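Slide 14.
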Amino acid sequence: MVGDNLKSLYAKLPSGVKLVAVSKFHPVDRLMEAYDAGQRLFGENRPQELAAKVPQMPSDVEWHFIGHLQTNKLKLVLPYVSLVQSVDSLHLLEAIDKWGRDNDKIVDILLELHLGAEETKHGFSEEDILSIIEAGKGIPSETASPSGMCNVRIRGLMGMATNTEDEAVIEADFARIEALFNRIRAEYPELAETFTELSIGMSGDWPLAVKHGATMVRIGTDIFGPREY
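Slide 15: predicted structure.
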């Protein structure tokens, strides 16, 4: 089933849009079904689960962290992932930068924009993101940027639309983050080679996300079926 689901998704996704298989709560044997079908990019949102799965999966798997990350869990995540998609506070951004300095590593991240109506969602405002970009330009260098951070590389934006069946509301959310993404790329051409990723869209709304410029979609249920708790 997993292989068939992936084959269907691969056929529908435009070229250039990366498929992040959201594997949280699913056992390794289900992940291996996806791997055997050709999937190499997986997203996890629990640090302990990620750290446990990494050694059980082939070494050519690429891992993204897509959930809320507490600063005391960085050592369970940052050694293994190629991208932290869900940087949602300045405190977390600074902690990741410090971890990068301490471990001689530049960490690729996305800034999470707070989309949708839910107060429980994490993320920055547009103004916060523009301030971060202006301060540091998102490009690591040998000397600290004006923001004081030189071990994080801001690769783009991430967001989750309002949890609703109203497609007009979802489209408005995606249009909002697309507009911010395009504004940053237009106003900071020095970021053209690095600020390239827009991670929006999940199982229920990814076609709308692709319509609004998604370069990554995060899909779990449409690949693995309902979560296993």
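Speaker note: The CA atoms of residues 88 and 126 lie 12 Å apart.
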